[in-house]
Amino acid sequence: MKDQIAEEYVQVDAEPWAPFPEALSAGGIRWKLLHVSPEMGSWTAYFDCPKGSSFNAHIHQGPGEYLLTKGRMDVRGGKDAGGDTAVAPGYGYESSGARHDQTAFPVDSEFYMTFLGPLVFITPDGQPVAVVGWKEVQGAWQAFLASQPAQQKKAA
Amino acid sequence: MKDQIAEEYVQVDAEPWAPFPEALSAGGIRWKLLHVSPEMGSWTAYFDCPKGSSFNAHIHQGPGEYLLTKGRMDVRGGKDAGGDTAVAPGYGYESSGARHDQTAFPVDSEFYMTFLGPLVFITPDGQPVAVVGWKEVQGAWQAFLASQPAQQKKAA
Amino acid sequence: MKDQIAEEYVQVDAEPWAPFPEALSAGGIRWKLLHVSPEMGSWTAYFDCPKGSSFNAHIHQGPGEYLLTKGRMDVRGGKDAGGDTAVAPGYGYESSGARHDQTAFPVDSEFYMTFLGPLVFITPDGQPVAVVGWKEVQGAWQAFLASQPAQQKKAA
Amino acid sequence: MKDQIAEEYVQVDAEPWAPFPEALSAGGIRWKLLHVSPEMGSWTAYFDCPKGSSFNAHIHQGPGEYLLTKGRMDVRGGKDAGGDTAVAPGYGYESSGARHDQTAFPVDSEFYMTFLGPLVFITPDGQPVAVVGWKEVQGAWQAFLASQPAQQKKAA
After folding, report:
1. What number is the ipTM of this complex?
2. How many other CB atoms are there within 10 angstroms of residue C85's CB atom?
3. Coil, strand or helix: which one is D105?
4. C contact set with A (CB within 8 A)
5. Which residues contact D90 (CB under 8 A, 6 or more apart)?
6. Distance, in angstroms, between B6 CA and closest chain D CA?
């Protein structure tokens, strides 16, 4: 007999910011993990992207949906290059298979995003270099929390 | 040969507000449909909930995730009744099978929410009265847009 | 820290057959529940459908996929009525929103099916009468197992 | 306005068998693609696995469910090594994150499987070597069909 999954609540502004890996981004992006769904393989996070920051090339294996709550985000090169330029408050749907060679932030920006399945970060010729799914983000987030001074740690 | 699904972008503040059906809510809730995924049966919307408004009793058939961007939301009776009380910026995960006898807004509030599968609105003894999934929300949204004066209509 | 979901294995021919509710079908359909996923709201079952049996009218809220392993199944009225007639071994994809006014078995048949989200059984004019999702099928299956004589019960 | 996704039917025994890539398997595995869902990133296939064949090491990024219709399949090393040994008719659920260092077939076997998200084939130390999702399997299947003599080609 399996139980209904427990509901969850996270006070977003009470969570600390973790640095997003430099190997996968540039310019000081920070993030907060809000949720992982181990069964579906989905996960949800909030990102803080300073002016000039960007994510490295990646493929969305499953669909992803974002709400840009602050600033501006150039997706798939931005509008001028045939992609989208989101301006807060902006919503976007990135489909399974979407390849983002660069996602860039021309001004200080923040966005919330739900992901189904992993991001696969790739080399310029499309070879996989890192698979970032619910397990990897949960592991990274837990490692970050464990590294924080006690007074900043979130109560379990 | 099936194509990759097209990416989408919606300028959230450029969309009009539609009244949420009075049969399913009270107090003047309004909404904007941002996305439907006909294949998965998922959908995404933004809600504006004035002080004192509430949604009628419903069950989340699949998981739902919200980001409360403004105000306060009492979910499953609120914190004092064993549920959650979200305060913006707050994130919540409502699981498949979650029954919400009342979701209430004690102050002017707004939230963004992604849904997998339908909401089933129910009578007090749990009988289904309305199934609200991607098809129904798309139909309601299109009917609303068609009813708007031309100058307010969104370009296709 | 959430764990990876446990893998599962079911020896299909060792499970007992439960009668499928007469209120939702006709002609002696039996079934075995193989799996429920409470987080996604998905579930998987095996059905045994004698010659002349049928399921009552229902809507697939999420996608469903079947493998007909024996016999013949007339879906959406069968091929002659614009639907499909599956002949074992046959595969079918039923999309989110698919309405099946009758699914009928002209010969003794068996099929395996995975479901995302609930089936909503409906009246002829489309009103919901029963929502059958992971919770309901798990409850029905557990009640059936509990009703079985001890020697037929499956070890936990 | 988005349409409901079309239903599909495939006569499984009328489809040809394609060789499964030698780079990802050993012993002459063959397969048939039955379905892809570009929006969810899910896909469904049927596999024919001769005695002595096996799949190379891979990780299931999302959940997978199989029905072994013939023979025997040693999953995660088989029962003696702490995994599962399926015997037809057998059902199995492989969870998101499941790592299969070897999946082996001690006798001639066949199975049907639904996948959410990609398989990531890996090196012994877990580095990704190939991401196999709906796009890749559809591409491989179409290339196989195009390579077949005309009389064996399936009508569109």
Report:
1. 0.94
2. 18
3. coil
4. 1-5, 36-40, 135, 138, 142
5. C9, C10, C11, C12, D67, D68, D73
6. 9
